[in-house]
Amino acid sequence: MVDSVQDAARVGGELGYPVMVKIQIHAGGRGKAGGIKKADNESTLRRLAQEFLGRSFVTAQTGGEAKTARRLLIERSSPINKEYYAGITYERKSARPVLLVSSEGGVEIEEVARKDPGKIVSVPIDPFLGLLPHQGRSITQALGMTQAKGGRLWPALAGMYQAFVSAGASTVEINPLAEMGSGEFLALDAKVVLDDNQVALRPELQALNDPQEEDPMELKAKRHGLSYVKMDGTIGCMVNGAGLAMATLDIITLYGLKPANFLDVGGSASAEQIQEAFQIILGDQRVGAVFVNIFGGIMRCERIAEGIIQAVRKAGLRVPLVVRLEGTHVELGRRLLQESGLAIVMAQGIEDGVKKLKEILK
Amino acid sequence: MSIWLKDDTRVLCQGVTGEAGAFHTKLCKEYGTRMVAGVSPGKGGQSVEEVRVFDTCEEAVLKAGAEASMIFVPARFAKDAILEAAHAGIRLIVCITEGIPTWEMVEVKHHLKGGEVRLIGPNCPGIITPGESKIGIMPGYIHRPGEVGVISRSGTLTYEVVYALTQAGLGQSTCIGIGGDPVIGTSFIDCLEAFGRDEGTRAVVMIGEIGGLDEESAAAYIRSEFYKPVVGFIAGRCAPKGRRMGHAGAIVSGSQGTADAKIEALRSAGVKVADYPWEIPGLVKESLHVQKR
Q1: Most buried among A203, B55, B172, B272, using CB within 10 Å?
Q2: Domain A80-205: homologous superfamily in CATH
Q3: How far is CA A122 from each of CA A88, A90, A183, B103, B167, rounded to the nearest angstrom?
Q4: Helix B214-225 / helix B188-197 crossing angle, nearest 10 deg
Q5: Class level of CATH domain A5-76
Q6: Whole-prediction pTM value?
Q7: Predicted complex ipTM exceeds 0.85
Q8: Is B47 helix (H, G, I), strand (E, B) or coil?
Q9: To probe the interface with B, which of A108, A238, A295, A326 has the most B CB atoms within 10 Å?
Q10: Could you tell me the sign of the dihedral formed by the alpha carbons of B148, B153, B158, B159, in that order?
Q11: Residues 1-60 of A with CB under 8 A from B
Q12: What does the pLDDT look like over A254-313, one tens digit per residue?
């Protein structure tokens, strides 16, 4: 892995040409996006490294956004007999890890699943027993391999499962898993998705985090215990609870408006979290109006109202704000907001709130 | 009538000396839950909200007759807490804790498989039988006793829907928040089976969201084996693909777990699926009316 043209050339020299140059971003689908190329000599390698480093790529898996390539993987391009796919992920229904192996390597597994599901061998794994050798032999047979070749494949599969468990990952993929001319199996590329809950408990996994690969606003939100996802509209949204937040975005969309973000301030939104949430929402210059939808539940509405008032005073309000508040002491909360002297539009229910947003933006 | 939780269920709270544990032990007591014990290692002999604290679940079962547990311990200790309760003979375990690694829940789930323990959650609001008892963090006052069963993967969205039902004069038999994680103890189908047997439940509202295939499985079950009317709602229709929407389990992976597929599956199983949460009470009334004739 390199991050400069000089290092790329040095590694190329060490490995011997030809080499493959692959951009390293947190997304798959790079080949099709032109981020994987072969270099036959040092000058081509230098040219490719120059071209790739710092360039933005949009792939089928980046969600429409461009990702900047800051690192490259340089590896020897040896004659390859065949490319396979191997991956482990959770099957939610059975609550087990499942190993997927396919003879159609080098392409997205989703595509294989769609076009040719018969080419994917799937093996459920008992979490207490792990991947068993006889399961490896079944895979070998299902792939139409000789058992001798399967024996060379086994260490890759067993190692992958070990990595999945020890990292507490939610997905590990080796794609392509290449059978080289020499007969050995080599992981030419891999993707590991860690479980956020596991990361939160393990500092050694947190150390792997690369903030440059994340959206700065999403990163800021995460630091304050908020869950924020950027979307492409103009209505800034602040909701307590993930389900209610998703439903609120859906309703806004069904009414012909477009949400700028998903933002869950947590089931029991604290005043501090509400303030941070406002700053994040208003920090997005595309936002033309803000909708706050809070179902107070156990938290008293006057506390929430105070949080909103403080936040608005601190952040300043450059766009219209519609607030829908429900829960314990809701009358008191609404009165506080109305008497605050701030230009807050009060809504009775989600429907009323969204209608008022439409009216304001007309 | 109700499922799993009744007015005489004897409940203990694990993590009772923590802030959330103490606060919700108090609120549950006020609602009418029989809080008989708390568990907090090293703090046995103390009391919280006039509830006696024990060092272990085993002791709480032996000396206070606890039958159900409400778990608030931090994520790091939650797996052990769930298993401790199960090994002590607790049969209803409600895990409120958020942030438990998927792998640990996989281990818990496989260990409990085939046994008699009913685990609800984790990362959920809990279970309430209105007017009788609640184990969880939901606000009691929005509920009222009645004949609608509610099952949901969400917290505040459930409160929203329950409150709308209550205001429309539709009480609830039992409401269960099954949780927003990818691996959870109790599924939609587990709840539907119990509601199907419960004479006090005449209709069910199920609130799903993007991610996984639990709603699709529930739809298949409803089509072949569930004969009470079901009204549904699915959150996350406009969620971008591949992004986690707050809940660990709320993610569309590839083409799997979309809201549209879930809505389609439920509709084809005869479930009335609301576009807006506020339509739910009307749809419930409609289906109860149809059922009467």
Answers
A1: B172
A2: ATP-grasp fold, B domain (3.30.470.20)
A3: 10, 12, 24, 19, 49
A4: 30
A5: alpha beta
A6: 0.90
A7: yes
A8: strand
A9: A295
A10: positive
A11: none
A12: 999 999 999 998 766 677 888 889 889 988 899 999 999 999 877 778 888 888 898 888
